Amino acid sequence: MPVSNPRRDVLVGLCCAALAPLGARAQGNWTPVAGTDYIVLQNPQPVETGDKIEVTEFFQYSCPHCFAFTPDLQAWRKQLPADVAYVRVPVAFDPSRQPHSQLYYSLQALGRLDLHDRVFSAIHVEHHPLLDTNQIADFMAENGIDRAKWLQTYNSFSVVSEANRAVQVYTAYKIDGTPMLACDGRYETSPAMVHGSRPESLVVMDFLIDKARKERRKK
Fold this sequence. Notes:
- By secondary structure, this protein is of the alpha+beta class.
- Helix content is 45%, strand content 11%.
- The chain has eight helices and five strands.
- The chain has helices at residues 6-13, 64-77, 98-109, 116-124, 133-142, 147-154, 157-172, 198-218; strands spanning 39-40, 53-59, 84-90, 180-183, 187-189.
- Strands 1-5-4-2-3 form a five-stranded mixed sheet, with helices on both faces.
- Mean pLDDT is 90; it is low at 1-6 and 8-22.
């Protein structure tokens, strides 16, 4: 596991913390503060979305906070402007969780990301770990994906490469807890940074998207 640091400690502390009540902050009636509500990356990361502002969601299928954040993110993504591209990067701090990363990129390769939320539910509601290759294949077959085709994709060079590359990406971003959101390779925020409030973290992201848009126009 990553070594402890202030940002990670906040995320760990969130496990037993009650969500803060929504007030003026959740309604957007405040200006997010760098170093408190979001982080400015000392080493900006490259983005691959061209003219579009890149929003990156770092998640773990095994993370209960990521599971809880999913409905908020679903609603928020539907309202994103046309100049924003949304990207997910699976995180596996523990190498034993790497099958989840391959699982995600297999769904992406097969055009079946409609099962993304179903995977979360299987793990957190039905208590299926989905870490064993055969268990994963059986689950996918139960959800309409040909078992042989799934295994071929899951074990393919391209999917394994994507899963390995994800490690490089979240390491470069210095991700030490999930869920975490990044904006245009320059900023990060999370519910833990704004008193454990998922809606407030998305208000911060709206602020950061607008900030990134203005910065791009100056170039």
